[in-house]
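HUMAN: I'm a chemist; might I ask for a sequence paired with its structure tokens?

ASSISTANT:
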Amino acid sequence: MTIQEKAQSIVDEFSMFDDWMDKYSYLIELGKELPLIDEKYKNETHLISGCQSRVWLHAKDENGIIKFTADSDAVITKGIISLLIKVLSGSTPTEIINADFNFLDEIGLKSHLSPTRANGLVSMVKQMQLYARAFKIKLNN
């Protein structure tokens, strides 16, 4: 499934909920499904800067496909990173670098986050794309 297809699936899932309390509950549920990061990666190196809460992100290359794992000390943040992983994990570096993140606006996520959480969301996206750029360089060498 492409990133766009996964993103559309998220939009469809969020459209089933009428109010944001239900959407927050769904985000929390997504966080419970998060592929958890190995404890050895819960360190400063894997900590995403710019997030209000602590979010650790690890990426590995499996034959040109990036797989992400993560964890957070906050349930909403854990749901947000889980949402991003659901869309981006299992894609190539180029697909992640070129990904369109309009689905975040379509589901209304950015407008329903506090400014610090919205900044954290941007930091998460940037870190995932940085991993993709690093793996793309590594694959081309």
Observations:
- The radius of gyration is 14 Å.
- The first helix runs from residue 3 to 15.
- Strands lie at 55-62, 65-72.
